[in-house]
Amino acid sequence: MSKETIDVVNGPVTAEPEARSEPARNSVAEWAVTIILLLFGTTTLVQAFVIPTGSMEDTLRIGDHLLVDKLAYAPSGAISKYLLPYEEPKHGDIIVFRYPVDIASTFVKRVIGVPGDRLKMINRVVYRNGVRLNEPYTYHKLPYEPSRDNFPGEPSTFADGMQAQLQREMLDNHVRDGEIIVPPGMYFAMGDNRDNSLDSRYWGFVPRQNIIGKPLIIYWSYKASTEDLTGASVGSMVTHFVDLAEHFFTRTRWDRTLHVVRGFPDSQLKDQPLPLQTGLANP
Q1: In sequence order, what E strands does the chain have?
Q2: Which of 83, 92, 202, 247 has the fewest Cβ atoms within 10 angstroms?
Q3: Cis amide leading into 192 (omega within 30)
Q4: β-strands 175-176, 131-132: how paired?
């Protein structure tokens, strides 16, 4: 079973249709699928990834090692669709996908918009199809910044190359009456750490074919630096192995071990708006 790095690169720090009728997996089903994949999984069914950066904090933390369910969004066959729990990405799902700017990189974000949705963000609050979203999973760890906390707006000044091209295409062709319209076959994804997430606000939509699967379980979580986790240099790799040998028991986050990762479907959202969550810059 191979392991890849989920490259949830940090973003700039200054810078509905009716719900689908598909039944959500309950806790028993989630654990059943988890056990089956752990026992019989190969890279075809499940794959290991590590989180090296903080764009999904506090839901997923730097150093979380995940198993990703690659069956969840797989195309269903004439018979297999009745036997396996295939589904389409839906609001609140956490997804793992190939970064549209560079498909060699893998990102993890949360689905905020599905095809046909109208989206905008005003003063850090997201509105979908005219309805204010209650998002208990989001955190804001930096001061309010108008150019970052309102969307859509002017193109980001830091974006360049393919990133800027995709952002410009989205803003030029998919904005109507101050809202982003998610086109067919595309998804709009954002990080839970909204102040520090390089997401669809900056590079556009996630194509359906880029979506690999959904995080299933945190099988291990270890406190380490981004450089060590990504193996940015031979020195960092050596340092990481030495650190593991010396501090495995004290830096392993035992409370996160075997933690099942779940999305947050619309049905679990409260009717009344929730206060914006704040947190420390480095939790």
Answers
A1: 3-5, 46-50, 64-69, 94-98, 106-113, 118-122, 125-128, 131-132, 175-176, 179-181, 186-190, 206-207, 211-221, 259-260
A2: 83
A3: no
A4: unpaired
Asked if residue 125 lies in contact with residue 119, where contact means CB atoms within 8 angstroms, the answer is: no
Picking from 69, 70, 72, 66, the residue whose alpha carbon sits closest to that of residue 49 is 66
CB atoms within 10 A of CB 173: 10
pLDDT per position as a tens digit, 146-176: 989 999 998 887 777 899 999 999 999 999 9
3-state secondary structure of 259: strand
- Helix, strand, coil percentages, rounded to 5, for the chain: 25, 25, 50
Alpha helices (runs of H) in 113-189, residue ranges in sequence order = 146-149, 161-173
Active site residues: 55, 109
Q: Looking at the DSSP assignment, which residues form a beta bridge with residue 222?
A: 252
* Contact of 163 with 171, CB cutoff 8 Å: no
pLDDT tens column, 44-94: 678 888 998 899 998 999 999 999 999 889 876 666 566 666 789 999 999
Tokens of 6: 């989920």
Ranges of residues in the chain with a pLDDT under 70 are 1-44, 76-85, 231-234, 236, 270-283
Whether domain 3-268 has CATH 2.10.109.10:
yes
